[in-house]
Amino acid sequence: MQKVNIENCYRKYTYPFVETICLIDGKPRLLRYHNRRLNHTRKMIFGSTDFIDLADYIPQKFHSGKQKLRVLYNERILSVKATDYQIDEIEKISAVTIDSSFSYTYKSSNRAYFAQLLDEHNAQDLVLIQNNLITDTTYCNLIFFDGHRWLTPSQPLLEGCMRQNLIENHGILPVIIRTEDLDKLVSFKRINAMRSFDEAQEIAISAILIEQKC
Fold first, then answer.
1. How many C-beta neighbours within 10 Å does residue 69 have?
2. CATH topology agreement for domains 17-84 and 93-210
């Protein structure tokens, strides 16, 4: 296997990567998924072969309720910060077409493109369409109910930890979902590490408003 060029990686990835871990009463949720993604990213981008266990970076001080633990890293852990978290709810959400070349395979802390989209559309969140395929929102994966089962786009921008957990353990089915397929669906949820299936708001599919290409 060809060795990763570290200098090229540093030039391309000038921002650290990030894991966002949900703490419930101080206990981490989906930690093995976060460990898997963090160490895979380190291996693919920096050529790192050692294993970092995020359990070693969980705050020891007890805190009740839900917190978001933000871990910044490159080859090593750079910073860890916990903040309180509350799930927001929405009534409507716009769907916009994004650049076909945009990639977010690795969870980078550089979210300038997402911030630009939100600013342009004066929105808190957006459903993102790429090459006529439904992908994610600006900060969540999506799952859709077709009246019989729950589905998730098979080509997301980012393979999130909660999404992977729902696929592996709860029967969520990855499928291609095109823009024109939305009318065949009943409802949807926005999920991520901070929003489990049960916690995420279920929203009628009519709440998605298709907008023109950016």
1. 23
2. no
pLDDT in tens, 148-199: 999 999 999 999 999 999 999 999 999 999 999 999 999 999 999 999 999 9
For CA atoms 90, 95, 101, 105, give the dihedral sign.
Answer: positive
Q: What's the predicted TM-score (pTM) here?
A: 0.91
Residue at 63: amino acid letter? H
Cα–Cα distances in Å, from 97 out to 94, 179, 186, 211? 10, 10, 22, 8
Alpha helices in 125-182 (DSSP H): 161-169
Q: CATH fold of 17-84, please?
A: D-amino Acid Aminotransferase; Chain A, domain 1 (3.30.470)
Which architecture, in CATH terms, is 93-210? Alpha-Beta Barrel (3.20)
Structure tokens at 69: 């633990």
Could you tell me the sign of the dihedral formed by the alpha carbons of 24, 191, 152, 116, in that order? Answer: negative
